[in-house]
Amino acid sequence: MSNSDLWIRDIITTYGLSLVIFILIAVVISRKWSYLQNRIYKAYLTGFELECAKVMAPYKRHLFQSLEHIVSNDNVLRSMGSIRLLEIGVKMGENIQFYPDYTHLIGVDRNLKLADYLIKGNRSCQFSHVIIERLIIGDGSSLKEIPTGYVDVVVTTRSLCSVTSLKSTLQEIHRVLTPGGQYLFVEHIAENEGTFVRWLQGMLSRTKIWPSLFGGCHLNVNPIVDIKNAGFNHVVWDTFTVESYASRSFHWILSKQHVLGVAVR
């Protein structure tokens, strides 16, 4: 037996059991990967995103104050004192509390069970002040069900990071808004260039590690340039940092920088 054969035998003898265990674990994970993704993302939504929504409530309350003064372009809704609002990325419905009574809501989300959650779920009573006009399964990059110039307001909060095409989503937002309609946004953005966190955001996003576990979220996105180039007549925005000693500090470190603003069609 040659030296190379002896070396291979020694490797198998020493590490054979560990190798077999590793292969078995890899097979189990690959077969259960979709299930694990869903469980991790659900825990993320019901944990961190809810926690995040509470911390960011003052910023949202300030942003959504303008909803009380919007006059609908729809004659019927205007006569009723209502508006039509489309939200992309409804998640757990944490923004609905800020919407005026009798708002006609069109919700867009990847959650296949969104209707059950908003209408029949344990928290459905918290959404009863709005009228759910339509729920669309998707990410906002295609809103072909919505006519051009149909909605008065579009809202996204921490959602543009997960769309399949940022450019297409913004084009659709611009298209479905009525002339003079408003796009209200609060989105997390990448850290400054040259920082370790920025490098980490890029690495986790480019390798698809983070998107695969957290609903397609890309940590290295900064949509403000795309928003400014989407054809809106007027865009105002500002950046802010959310500091929190929340239980999931790693998530906060990776998505604490935000941009908040209004774009008018």
Automatic annotation (TrEMBL):
Listed CDD domains: AdoMet_MTases
Superkingdom assignment: Eukaryota
The Methyltransferase type domain, residue ranges: 86-185
Protein name per UniProt: Methyltransferase type 11 domain-containing protein
Listed transmembrane segments: 6-29
Pfam family, one: Methyltransf_11
Keywords for the protein's UniProt record, in alphabetical order: Membrane, Transmembrane, Transmembrane helix
InterPro entries assigned: Methyltransf_11, SAM-dependent_MTases_sf, Thiol_S-MT
